[in-house]
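Input for the complex:
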Amino acid sequence: MSGASQGVPAAGTASPLRGAAGPAGGRAYRAWRRHLLRRRADAGAEGWGGSAYVVYVAVLLGAMYGSMAWSFLASFGMGQASAAWPVQRLALLALGAAAVAAVVAVRAGVPLWVTGREAVHTLGGQFRPGVVLRGRALALLGGTVTVGALVTAAAAAGGGSAREVVLWAAAGGLTAPAALAVGAAAQVAVWRREATVLASVLLAVGVAAATAPRPVPLIACARVATGEPVPCSDPGPGVAGLVLAAVTAAVSCWVVLRTVPARLDVDDVAARGARFRAAGEGLGTGDALAVSRAVGVRPRGPRRVWDAGRPLALLTRAPVLARDLLGLRRRPWTTATATAAGITGSFLLLAVPETAGTVVGAVLLYVAVCGVAGGLAAFSRQPVPGGLFPGSAARVHGAHLLAPALVAALAIVTGAVLAAVATVLRDPAPRADATLVVALAALTVTVRAWVLSSTVVPAALFTPVASPLGDLSVVTVLAYHLRGWLVVSGAAWLAATAEGDAAWGPTAVVAVLFGWSAARKAGQVRE
Amino acid sequence: MAEPVTVSVRAATRTHGTVEVLEETSFDVGPGRAAVVVGPNGSGKTTLLRLVAGADLPTRGTVETLGAPAAETRQTRRDELALLLGGLPTYPDLTVAEHLTLVAAAWGPRHVLGRTPAPGVDEALADAGLTRVRDQYPGELSSGETQMFALACTLYRPGALVIVDEPEQRLDAGWRRRCRDLLLAALDAGRTLVVATHDHDLRAALTSVGPDGQARGVEVALAAPQR
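Predicted:
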């Protein structure tokens, strides 16, 4: 694709664009971009009207929910006796969470984004990556500083004086770009691992700081006017804290503005962004597998596991299970993460029998099943599911459930051992119902099969649903995409809050019904 | 005594809405013979193959395979049907060779292709010209290799009736020659083929005189659609 064909002036020719002075300078890029936006506006697609609408929606949402968020954060204010989470604890936790979120967002081609057309011209030598990225990096830094300052100020406003709130806001605003810098660094391939580790460390430190016992007990002060005892206010971040925040901000700005743009693979970033948009559009138009197609995991490990001359015993006796286990072996990180999630979920189900523990445990088990059901997902995507195997498609479908069921069973056994250890170490002993845990595990497997048995949103769900809040069809489509999570968490909540000890019965019945529905759909002719 | 018939299409038509996508068509194919469906784009080749595969029902007429209505055969005798209509049912985390190994393991002692036992995986890959990419994942293949892999996998799966839609797609001259050889080998092994194609050489090969002195197959020419 040539620049001239896109209406961009070729190098060495008289430019029709005002300000297009240098061959690769900032003015040339800005002029090119203005020209591009003008053309889009003339074409009526994503022009200034689109930008104005985005600003309008952002302001509207900020006005509607900003005050609510401020009040919520203020409820955690420092020094309040009712708040166990003062601002210095929240700040570290928020910073770690933001850094992890920024690293995860790299898959979507952000925080520093590049369009496909910009990548073409950048790789063609027309613009330097830094010229393309400088403006949006500055905007991101400004936005991050603003959000960091506002969040920290809101959290500090609950109990501090105006001076302390300002100091905390300054510290928060200066520290927040660190999360952006970690995310931007993760966009550079050679730094991705280090950035991921750093983000994980930040989150771990944040969690440790937030959950650690307070080192100094609150000293009660008294109101001058009434003599009523109140908790003393926090002294604020202090000079050392502010200096540290300023140094962090400087380093972050240097990373985002100078280092990352010079090393960024703009083609890769643009491709990630395009995949993310395609996945979003696919979800919006009803393709439930759009995301998994866009962010598929590349298989790893040796490629000659099965020797055709010496077939493995499992391969000849249970070929589908052998295939799925090989698939798990070729996705080591996904398998390890899913297994860890399953063990944690089982532990929560067995050791924390309260409602929250049951719901979170069931959801974590569902995470595990989703992670190890790659064979089932591949089966669901096939044009003629199970067409290479003998027997009915329903039989092959059932065989694909074995691997998730085995992993769930392994997770339950390991979780039970951990829960038994926890029982020995703590008092009182947990009151978990093991049968309910097994029933919930079966439910997660059959619900996953049910979800994968129908990968296209029914057209009827796109029918507009009028309500005082507007069209709710978007909500119904979203609920359809999240139906597995909703069913599992809802069933777990109902089981945890049910009266009596026989909650496992209805859960098992529901699991069987979902499994039957999935098998019935798998057996239908799809092509 | 009447000859046994594997595929019998009698005055079958298919209409979508107000458009007749397949005009009235009739033909019979015996075991070990081929039906080569030819015609311009839009003449209903793929529609006819879907009817024979039992994936769709005729608006008028009848389509029978293996002695029963095609839709019933698809449900009850799925093992006898090897289909390559839209795409191959692959797994993204298995290599090319592992797909064939999986097919061989899944069918076990029943892994017989027509009258001959199935060849080994390496031999089948060599016949298809896929030895070079035997350890590649399906997503790593070129479009031509993907098509050849799909054909090789479909023919490596047992089934008395093989239905293939335009196997020559995206193949260069060398690959097309291999494609013809694979289909001829399946035909000569006693399998029944229903193939839609635009390739004159493939059409000629599948309707040529076979080792028994009779024509290997019949040509089913579909009329051009009215535009």
